[in-house]
Design brief:
Blueprint lengths: L2 H26 L15 H14 L4 H13 L4 H15 L3 H17 L2
Length: 115
């Protein structure tokens, strides 16, 4: 891989990590007062998909990833949307594709088997 492409990938990874960190801070902060979010609030499904992306990007353990996948399913995300998040994490954060694909598929199957 040439140096320019490596620098671009490094820059994208740094930005993805920065965004994920900001998302985790938002999700961990106390809820704001009613009326401050209004129509601009992200839907629960989208928030859960973003949380899954962050968990994957930071290569969290199986339990955390599984919990995020189950939260996505409960919020109405379909398996294709979840797998799209996984594909993005594989490309952007260079996570081990096989390991995390297995984790995500097992969590989706577990959710649908125990619904």
């Amino acid at each position: 891989m040439n140096r320019r492409k490596k620098n671009q990938i490094d820059s994208m990874q740094q930005r993805a990590n920065q965004i994920a960190g900001e998302i985790f801070k938002m999700l961990d902060s106390p809820p704001r007062e009613a009326g401050k979010y209004g129509e601009e609030t992200l839907p629960l499904k989208l928030r859960n998909l973003i949380s899954l992306a962050a968990a994957l990007a930071f290569q969290k353990n199986r339990d955390i990833v599984s919990d995020c996948v189950i939260d996505c399913c409960k919020a109405g995300a379909d398996p294709e949307e979840i797998m799209e998040i996984l594909r993005l994490a594989v490309v952007i954060a260079e996570i081990p594709a096989n390991e995390y694909t297995d984790m995500v598929r097992m969590a989706i199957a577990d959710y649908h088997n125990h619904k």
